[in-house]
Design a protein that fits this description.
mainly alpha, Tetracycline Repressor, domain 2
């Protein structure tokens, strides 16, 4: 892949702009391309800079991917935060919004939960990314807490995780096996919420 228009030299002090441009370019590539085909060269070519410029902001490709994942988790949190409703209806609405996000942004979703592995050592998620992941699910945790006001913080968190695990499993299966006939999404969510919340 060649760069037709090289990126103009950034003025002194605009390093954050380049970092953001690298994350944006990577995010766009991952929306439509196979994650395994991603490389420093494809990212820098899409951004219009040299590979050296990328290493001024990121240690390696996994660190860049963590920044992209952080952006995607932030987007998911924004979408879930915007969901309305109260009580069980809000929990159901959040569940449907989560499934809709996974379906609409299939490329993003695959990246968010991809474990990027290196040959020299297993990858470990950055603490910041773990926190962002939990923050994305805060709307669901709050909604579950409102339905179960007498439950402990640990119980609310565990119940929310049970819901998320079931939603994540359905979302992953629908991508991996699109020909598999899954139950109606609305009925699935209704049943799931009844089973988990009691």
């Amino acid at each position: 892949m060649t760069v037709e228009n090289r990126r103009a030299r950034s003025p002194r002090g605009s390093g954050d702009d380049l970092r953001d441009a690298l994350v944006t370019a990577t995010a766009k590539l991952l929306e439509t391309h196979d994650l395994n085909a991603l490389s420093v060269r494809t990212v820098t070519s899409a951004t219009g800079v040299s590979p050296t410029a990328l290493y001024l902001h990121f240690t390696d490709l996994p660190e860049l991917l963590r920044a992209v994942k952080a952006r995607f988790f932030g987007d998911l949190r924004d979408q879930l935060t915007a969901v309305g409703g109260t009580g069980r209806d809000r929990v159901k609405a959040l569940a449907l919004a989560y499934l809709a996000y996974a379906r609409e942004y299939e490329g993003r979703y695959a990246v968010m939960f991809h474990a990027h592995r290196r040959t020299d050592a297993p990858s470990t998620p950055a603490a910041e990314l773990v926190e962002l992941g939990w923050a994305a699910f805060e709307p669901l945790i709050a909604a579950v807490g409102a339905v179960l006001p007498d439950a402990s913080v640990d119980e609310i968190r565990e119940t929310s995780l049970e819901l998320w695990l079931a939603l994540h499993g359905r979302a992953q299966l629908s991508v991996a096996m699109p020909w598999f006939e899954l139950p109606d999404e609305g009925r699935y969510v209704d049943r799931l919420v009844r089973q988990v919340l009691g």
